Amino acid sequence: MQLEELTNNPKLVVGVKQTTKCLTGDRARLVLIAKDAEQHVVRHILELCETKSVEIVFVDSMKTLGKACNIDVGAATAVIEK
Fold first, then answer.
1. Where's the Ribosomal protein eL8/eL30/eS12/Gadd45 domain (predicted)?
2. Which of 6, 34, 38, 54 has the fewest Cβ atoms within 10 angstroms?
């Protein structure tokens, strides 16, 4: 998946809290995590992805992920729902 595809994806959800909700509700198809996100912030997301067998894609930076998600700030995580 190319990051440019995220911008207009109607099933894109951005943020750690929303990603967690999608994972716990078994609605996540793909999780994107910024490589420079603080580990204590994304540790739980990584564990949930492993438990739920959800694919993870690492993005170079929070700034890059935020821009790809069409928001003006960086994003630690994003998810594409099923």
1. 5-79
2. 38
Q: What is the pLDDT of residue 6?
A: 77
Contact status, residue 70 vs residue 82, Cβ threshold 8 Å = no
Count of domains observed in the chain: 1
Strand runs labelled E in 1-82: 12-14, 28-34, 55-59, 77-81
Q: Model confidence over 21-70: pLDDT tens digits?
A: 999 999 999 999 999 999 999 999 999 999 999 999 999 999 999 999 99
Which residues span the domain enclosing 32?
3-81
Side-chain-facing half-sphere of 73: CA atoms under 13 Å: 6
pTM: 0.91
**Which residues does residue 13 pair with via DSSP β-bridges, in sequence order?**
79
Pairing label, strands 28-34, 77-81: antiparallel
